[in-house]
Write a structure and sequence with these properties.
The complex is a heterotrimer of chains A (536), B (432) and C (349). With 536 residues, chain A is mainly alpha-helical. Among the domains of chain A are: 132 residues, no CATH class; 144 residues, no CATH class. Chain A contains 26 helices and 6 strands. In chain A, strands 1-2 form a two-stranded antiparallel sheet. Chain A is globular. Chain A starts with a helix and ends with a strand. With 432 residues, chain B is of the alpha/beta class. Chain B has a single domain, classed as Alkaline Phosphatase, subunit A (3-Layer(aba) Sandwich), CATH 3.40.720. Chain B is built from 11 helices and 17 strands. In chain B, strand 16 and strand 17 form a beta hairpin. With 349 residues, chain C is an all-beta fold. The chains are: A mainly alpha (536), B alpha/beta (432), C mainly beta (349).
């Protein structure tokens, strides 16, 4: 009876994860990612009679693209050069240029680390940057992080994903399922999942079995060749966990090694010695963790892995996943665009899970360059992807934005010096990252942040009238109109509107007795306004 | 099949009430993961809640029920301290609380908590959230719920202030708005009794500070117009609160408090924070938590409790008297709570260890039937004998005492989340 | 007679108890032993028999924290704030002073001539009582009642010098006061500040205090015992500590500290009659006995006791020792296990 149940479960799950259309019904593989994205998004919009928002102008597109690819806003010089450029291919060239910059990998590693590592831990970021620089695909990165062959370079940092959670195998199981497969199965620990009838305790303990033999030995993760999980169902029956993946596929494994007391003692002594020598323990011949990599990437089981990658990257670029919440990829919670998800998943596994390729395609789509203000009357819900979403900046993006926007823009005018000056300015403000929270789903800005900018002594420097500051340059400009134009372009990367000219000019005029203070206050208002805080 | 019925994004970037009413008007929240209140509350409930406040004295580390509310004199588990008669016939508490013993007329003692989780981190989370964690959903803590339910949008004072000065266990004292969002995050005070960045720097006049903020609002609102994002809304709401919060700075400064009052509370940090808490409560802050750490008396339980219960007895009784004299106690619920109690069995270091199976809490003031004792433990205090309750019942009772329906539901996406776990009820026996 | 050798010190027997035995007194002439318990009772017991019987004497309502044998009476004091004089034969109360102190009584002692009983309590007063009549003869009062951190002070122990001239009282904040027995005048204040740990930051309360005090046989020195500085005040997490002072000069002669395996409070200190070494007993979750050499200025021997020891008495011939503590009563011997052959050279003291 149990067996049949499992079989049914597997079939149902497999059914969900199978493409909704047969492969030949999807757009052909040689379609570009950007074409596929626009095709499926627009096709879906047509079914709802939804019009998309207008495309953004060069100013916003440049700012958005730079923030998404290299984590900073453009300088005035960069804005002016891009807008003046008449090359019809300038957008593609911009994207390819930005992706060549070291900041591209740095930001991708930083964002992935924020997802994968517990707050504040950064070792994994070093590994991720290294792996991405070496053009490793997500499948290999996953393998490094879960199995971590210690004989290769950078293994210790890669193993932080496991090592930071090794003392709580339930947590490690949940984190792996949620972050690599988009499936949060923790509800199934104590009982079959309440919302998703297909997820049973067997799935939770099956997934846990991939990790149950792993443990921490000194600074390293080690694994035994024995150890099994028994669990009680809600009827109190004792069950043996199988080595079972989320799809229901079960791995046949060799009989566990049996050690007598003497051998166990010896094993313990060896492990102690390795700990003292600060060396990793050799992996067992049959490693359950290695089996997880094997099965997760196997042809019939890889949909979870590839779709999760696509959904998370999609969410990172578009500010809303194809499946929301990101860790609820289950039959009761279908994707908004199943064909698109299927197509992108196929594209990613047939292209070695190349993150760079995926990001480039998502950014080059027309869907990406829609305006975040919807022109029409009824703004379509997020899942239509008919407008761009406003995204709160990451702590690192916001620190960089504050650094560049508050600097005298002339500092970056010389094209020979600009690159290193920008890098220096951004690096000098890394410390500001700690003042902000990594935005998650439904992130809200706290009043602490507003109080910090309103009253903290340390923020004063950003707004003061001094030669190296924006305020210093503005104070030297006589015409109020020119002053406002310069200020808005520096902070928001675009020309000022008539309304802004009027309001800011009036603000200065009312303070003719204290013009410098007025300028400092204007810089403050620009820097703290939402337009700098968000990527739009 | 993906449901596209609610295809219009109804989130509105405006103040809190506007945000909520916009969502309510939309009727159904199924379109997005926005947090919506579906059930408009009845007017009578609104009135019942208005002006109500909660002050939590958080006894971090786990105070002993045997040396406070549930003494066991004459038993080997009872320890050396005697029980003393209180102002309530037949009710005794530890002799370490002589002051509270004379003023239990507004207080209900609960002696039958069984909360099961016996580690500091897990116990503290449970007693802050009122339920066990769910990995997929970040629950708000009691303070955030009360800040939201009892706060008013026009409030010029912070609506959730949390003091925790000792370093031990500070990370366990959860202040998390969870799915309610950062708007309801606590103002968390650790090293100083005054919040950071609340006072204006000297090089800007008050008028310029205000008009600078107005200019910012103008620019920022222009940007927000036509764009929709919960995060974006929260950014401008946060800045909108700055000036009001700044005006509450004086509440944290005891220098203008009469010396007589300061003397009455005493010099200890806990006493001073209790006095600041009273000032906040008086000014309308709906939730204040004063944590007193660290009670974890694995060694020398009786000496530690001699110190800490003596202090608690004085501070709590002074605070209650002060609130009563000012006419605030009828609208202020004062709670003592911890992550758990301590073992009846006394260890060889004359200590008591973690014990979540049978312990006590107290509720005083607003909505409470004073002079009641609910529940009982057996003669050695090892098990609950009568009327066992858990964290959810405790939370339901606190909510109900200040006029909040514990079964009120929030919606996270389409999922209804009641304030307390389904199937649990307030302890009506201690409610007025 | 006093050739006791710490190297021969060994445990003979233990008796389990459900309660915590906090105090004991033994009459060296008659061998009578009485103990005071956390169950509020005083018991007479013969620790020398295999399965001792505990004869209860009921009267207190809380922990018995002081117990002395004046020859004629047993006098006990308790957390219930009362003192009781007991008839040793009938086990009946002879006299009861209900509120002998305003707060919890922590300990009792007698003068060497057994004419007076001294009590200390958390009202921070030492009271001297006529052992025969129960009259209050004198009160000694100068320990502060509230610590500088605003917490109640605690007065843990009292000792009278063998020459009968001096009284020493010790408190929570590790102050030692020396008093003239005749006049009641406060002579001197010494301190052992390491015995009191105040944690201002992590946990904001204190632990420790001086828990034991005794004079040297020649009355020239006073030893106090407690626990060293503690990082985590949740636990008795430091080695036991004894400090030795010269009475005349007030000078600190030495500080003895056991090793990390012997953590906890020194609950009692016993001088060998030679004055050359002393014993410190106490514990945390476990218990121990330490031997401290006054001349060598070091801990010469430490051994585990079967329980946290709250009090110990040694027979005047230093052949036997009796201890009480957490859930146990124990008996030790100083005599070598085998019949004596040759006296070894290594005998200490």
């Amino acid at each position: 009876m149990k067996k049949y149940l499992l079989l049914i479960v597997s079939l149902v799950l497999a059914g969900y994860m199978q493409p909704a259309l047969k492969a030949q019904d999807l757009l052909p593989p040689e379609t570009t990612i950007e074409q596929a994205v626009d095709h499926y998004i627009q096709a879906e919009q047509a079914t709802g009679n939804i019009a998309s928002a207008p495309q953004v102008d060069d100013y916003i597109l440049l700012r958005r693209t730079m923030l998404d690819l290299i984590g900073r806003i453009p300088t005035v010089a960069e804005v002016e050069a891009y807008v003046a450029d008449e090359d019809p291919e300038k957008r593609v060239k911009l994207v390819d240029h930005l992706m060549q910059q070291p900041e591209f990998i740095e930001q991708l590693a930083y964002d992935l680390n924020n997802i994968l590592a517990p707050a504040g831990k950064t070792d994994l970021e070093l590994y991720l940057a290294d792996a991405l620089n070496n053009r490793k695909g997500w499948d290999n990165i996953f393998a490094d992080m879960i199995y971590g062959n210690y004989e290769e370079e950078m293994p210790k940092q890669a193993m932080q994903f496991v090592n930071l959670r090794i003392n709580d195998i339930d947590n490690l199981t949940n984190a792996t399922s949620a972050l690599f497969f988009g499936v949060n199965i923790s509800c199934a620990k104590c009982h079959d999942h309440p919302l998703v009838s297909e997820w049973t305790q067997a799935h939770f303990y099956g997934m846990k079995s991939f990790f149950n033999r792993s443990f921490s030995n000194g600074d390293f993760v080690a694994e035994r060749a024995y150890g099994a999980i028994k669990y009680a169902n809600t009827n109190g029956e004792q069950l043996d966990a199988k080595l079972m993946f989320l799809t229901g596929s079960v791995i046949e494994e060799p009989e566990p090694v049996v050690l007598d007391d003497e051998a166990k003692k010896k094993e313990k002594a060896e492990l102690e010695q390795l700990k003292k020598d600060k060396k990793p323990a050799p992996a067992p011949e049959f490693s359950r963790r290695a089996q997880l990599i094997e099965i997760a990437l196997r042809e019939n089981d890889r949909d979870y892995f590839s779709k999760n990658l696509v959904n998370r990257m999609w969410n990172r670029i578009y500010g809303h996943g194809l499946v929301m919440p990101l860790d609820q990829m289950h039959p009761e919670n279908p994707p908004s665009h199943p064909d698109l998800l299927d197509w992108l998943a196929r594209d990613t596994y047939t292209n070695d899970y190349n993150l760079q390729r995926l990001v480039r395609g998502l950014i080059l789509s027309k869907t990406y360059s829609q305006h975040s203000v919807y022109g029409g009357e009824k703004r379509p819900a997020k899942f239509w992807f008919a407008t761009a979403n406003v995204k709160p900046m990451s702590p690192r993006q916001y620190a960089a934005a504050l650094a560049l926007a508050s600097r005298n823009p002339a500092h970056f005018d010389d094209p020979n010096e600009a690159v290193s000056r920008i890098q220096n300015e951004v690096k000098a403000h890394r410390g500001w990252e700690r003042k902000f929270v990594v935005p998650g789903e439904k992130f809200q800005v706290s009043v602490d942040e507003a109080l910090l900018f309103s009253n903290a002594d340390e923020f004063k420097d950003k707004t003061k009238v001094a030669n190296d500051r924006l305020g210093g340059e503005l104070a030297a400009i006589e015409s109020n109109e020119a002053l406002v134009q310069r200020a808005i372009k520096t902070v928001y990367s675009r020309p000022a509107t008539a309304e802004e000219l009027e309001a800011i000019s009036a603000y200065i005029a009312a303070r003719s007795d204290r013009r410098e203070e007025a300028i400092s206050q204007i810089v403050w208002a620009l820097l703290t306004s939402s337009e700098l805080r968000f990527n739009h | 099949m993906f449901d596209r019925k609610i295809g219009v994004d109804m989130s509105v970037n405006t103040d809190r009430r506007g945000f909520l009413s916009g969502a309510t008007a939309a009727g159904l929240a199924a379109s997005s993961m926005n947090l919506d209140i579906l059930k408009a509350e009845s007017l009578s409930n609104e009135l019942k809640k208005s002006g109500k406040r909660v002050l939590l004295l958080w006894l971090a580390g786990g105070a002993s029920q045997l040396e406070t509310w549930d003494p066991k004199p004459g038993r080997l588990t009872g320890g050396p301290y005697q029980a003393i008669q209180t102002s309530l016939p037949g009710v005794q508490i530890s002799e370490l609380m002589p002051k509270m013993a004379t003023r239990l007329h507004n207080t209900a003692i609960i002696r039958s908590l069984n909360t099961q989780i016996g580690d500091h981190g897990g116990g503290a989370r449970l007693m802050h959230l009122g339920r066990r964690d769910e990995p997929n959903l970040k629950y708000p803590d009691m303070g955030s719920v009360l800040a939201r339910e009892l706060g008013r949008p026009d409030l010029q004072v912070p609506d959730y202030v949390s003091f925790y000065t000792a370093t031990e266990g500070r990370g366990n004292a959860v202040g998390q708005p969870g799915f309610l969002g950062a708007r309801y995050a606590p103002m968390f005070l650790t090293t100083d009794n005054k919040p950071a960045n609340l006072s204006r720097l000297e090089d800007i006049t008050d008028l310029d500070h205000k008009e600078r903020a107005d200019l910012r609002a103008l620019l920022s609102n222009r940007f927000a117009k036509g764009r929709v994002s919960e995060s974006l809304g929260s950014h401008n709401v946060a800045y909108g609160r700055v000036r009001g919060l700044m005006s509450s700075e004086k509440l944290f400064d005891l220098s203008d408090e009469p010396q007589k009052v300061k003397d009455r509370y005493g010099k200890s940090l806990f006493a001073q924070q209790a006095l600041v808490a009273r000032r906040l409560i008086e000014a309308g802050t709906p939730f204040v938590k004063v944590a007193r750490a660290w009670w974890d008396s694995h060694g020398q339980n009786f000496e530690t409790h001699l110190e800490l219960v003596t202090e608690l007895d004085h501070v709590m009784s002074t605070l209650l008297e002060d609130l009563e004299e000012r006419g605030l106690l009828q609208d202020t619920l004062v709670v003592t709570l911890a992550e758990f109690g301590r073992t009846p069995t006394i260890n060889a270091s004359l200590g008591r260890d973690h014990f979540a199976r049978a312990w006590s809490a107290s509720l005083t003031g607003c909505g409470i039937k004073g002079g009641t004792v609910f529940g009982a433990t057996d003669e050695d205090g090892q098990h609950v004998k009568d009327n066992e309750i858990g964290a959810a019942e405790m939370f339901a009772t606190i909510y109900k005492a200040v006029g909040i329906d514990p079964h009120h539901e929030y919606f996270v996406g389409a999922r209804p989340i009641p304030l307390v776990d389904p199937g649990t009820h307030a302890v009506d026996e201690v409610l007025a | 007679m006093f050739q006791a050798d710490p190297n021969n010190f060994r445990e003979l027997r233990t008796t389990s108890r459900p309660d915590i035995i906090l105090r004991m007194t033994r009459n060296d002439d008659t061998g009578e032993v009485f103990v005071g318990s956390s169950d509020a009772k005083v018991y007479q017991v013969d620790p020398m028999v295999e399965q001792p019987e505990f004869l209860a004497m009921e009267g207190h309502t809380s922990y018995v924290m002081g117990l002395v044998d004046t020859g004629k009476y047993i006098v006990s004091g308790s957390y219930d704030k009362s003192l009781i004089w007991w008839n040793k034969e009938t086990k009946q109360q002879v006299r009861r002073i209900e509120m002998a102190h305003d707060r919890w009584i922590r300990n009792l002692t007698t003068t060497p001539d057994n004419k007076f009983v001294l009590s200390v309590a958390d009202d921070m007063v030492c009271k001297i009582w006529d052992a025969e009549t129960g009259d209050l003869v004198r009160t000694l009062e100068s320990h502060i009642k509230v610590t500088e951190h605003g917490f109640p002070n605690m007065l843990y122990a009292v000792a009278v010098s063998p020459d009968g001239k001096l009284i020493a009282t010790v408190d929570r904040i590790a102050k030692i006061k020396l008093w003239d027995f005749e006049t009641g005048e406060e002579l001197k204040e010494l301190e052992a500040p390491k015995c009191y740990t105040w944690d201002p930051k992590a946990r904001i309360h204190s632990i420790g205090g001086i828990r034991s005090v005794t004079f040297s046989p020649d009355s020239t020195k006073v030893a106090v015992g407690g626990i060293g500085q503690i990082g985590n005040v949740d636990h008795l997490a430091a080695a036991g500590r004894v400090e030795l002072f010269e009475v005349a000069s007030g000078e600190k002669l030495h500080m003895f500290e056991g090793d990390d395996k012997h953590k906890g409070l020194v609950e009692q200190i016993i001088f060998h009659p030679s004055g050359k070494w002393l014993m410190a007993v106490g514990g945390d979750h476990g218990g121990w006995v330490q031997f401290l050499d006054v001349e060598k200025k070091e801990v010469v021997k430490q051994l585990k006791a079967p329980m946290h020891v709250h009090q110990m008495v040694v027979t005047s011939d230093f052949k036997m020792a009796f201890g009480v503590g957490h859930n146990r009563l124990a008996v030790w011997s100083f005599e070598p296990e085998e019949p004596m052959e040759e006296k070894t050279e290594e005998a200490a003291g």
